[in-house]
Design brief:
This protein is mostly helical. It has a domain at 25-145: Tetratricopeptide repeat domain (Serine Threonine Protein Phosphatase 5, Tetratricopeptide repeat). The chain contains twelve helices and six strands. The longest helix is centred in the C-terminal third of the chain and has 34 residues, at 199-232. Residues 287-308 are annotated as: Disordered. Keywords: Signal. This is Pilus assembly protein PilG.
Length: 308
């Protein structure tokens, strides 16, 4: 394609500016800001594409600064998507916009999660060497989508990179346990334990091996409690009721040496662990006190933990 005559370039640039101006109801299509097509911009500004890309990156930042509503933040995606269409290797856009787009609506509900994850996935395809974008994608999968297995796979791969923090492997084992992929989590934990260069690290991963084994038992007990609830229309008062009802021949031993009990919400916990081996969501009471997920009314279970 031939270049446009020089006299037409100012007019073309003016069109870009007008189309990329702060959106109004007349400049929106299908509830999205009206922006130029990437193909048009490449054709018109082949020699200045880097400058045009930077221009739309600045507009992306401008949108972030002006955003107040979930719709405003969703519009950020459109600008960031265009900027990365023009320069697929622009790694900063993927991470910065991807972390900004999701908005908390309250009660653990978020808006614009799909747009954020879509942009981050685009970034991992186009700039696979960028660890920051990969980790943010794993974060989205953990906290927004509850896709723990995929998040664990990503963190495991990141843990093999030279500059990876030591705690990546521990996080991956926790995620595998939450996903129910105990074999993979155990293999990783055993590998880290056996390859540890100091005693403290070895002990840390030795405990993680036992925590994974414990979580596997806890999930099995959860399933038995749910089956009891289905049969009787209520949860059992104690775990011993599962044996008395014939659902289990005996209660399993705790790999960490504690005692299992039924806590609030009908889930099973161990006296040897304050939290289960899952991603911990930092829930707090109205006065700011952190909620312990294994809290239970005193005396409701013969297996209740009496330690503080």
């Amino acid at each position: 394609m031939r270049k446009l005559p020089a006299l037409l370039l100012p007019a073309a640039l003016l069109c870009v500016v007008l189309l990329a101006a702060p959106p109004t109801p007349t400049l929106r299509v299908n509830d999205r800001p009206l922006l130029p097509r990437p193909g048009l911009l490449r054709a018109v500004f082949r020699g200045q594409l880097g400058l045009v890309t930077d221009y739309f990156w600045i507009l992306t930042l401008n949108r972030i600064g002006r955003s107040r509503t979930p719709t405003d933040y969703r519009d950020v995606y459109a600008y960031a998507d265009l900027a990365t269409d023009l320069d697929p290797k622009f790694a900063t856009v993927y991470w910065f916009a991807g972390t900004t787009i999701p908005i908390h609506l309250g009660r653990e509900q978020y808006a614009n999660v799909e747009e954020s994850t879509k942009l981050l996935r685009k970034g991992t395809r186009n700039v696979p060497e960028n660890s920051r974008t990969w980790f943010q994608l794993a974060y989205n999968l953990m906290f927004f989508h509850r896709e723990y297995k995929e998040a664990a796979d990503i963190i495991t791969e990141l843990s093999r990179r030279r500059d990876a923090p030591a705690w990546y492997s521990a996080l991956a084992t926790r995620l595998y346990a939450q996903a129910g992929d105990f074999d993979t989590g155990l293999s990783l934990a055993v590998m880290m334990r056996d390859g540890a260069e100091d005693e403290e690290t070895r002990q840390t991963y030795d405990r993680r091996v036992r925590e994974i084994l414990q979580e596997r038992v806890l999930q099995q007990l959860d399933a038995e409690v749910e089956r009891y609830r289905t049969r009787h229309g209520r949860a059992p008062a104690t775990l011993e009721a599962l044996v008395e009802d014939g659902g289990m021949t005996r209660l399993p031993a705790d790999p960490l040496g504690g005692r299992f009990f039924i806590g609030d919400g009908g889930r099973v916990y161990s006296s040897a662990s304050e939290f289960r081996l899952q991603v911990i969501y930092d829930e707090r009471t109205a006065d700011g006190k952190r909620i312990r997920p294994n809290a239970h009314p005193e005396g409701t279970s013969s297996n209740a933990d009496t330690t503080p």
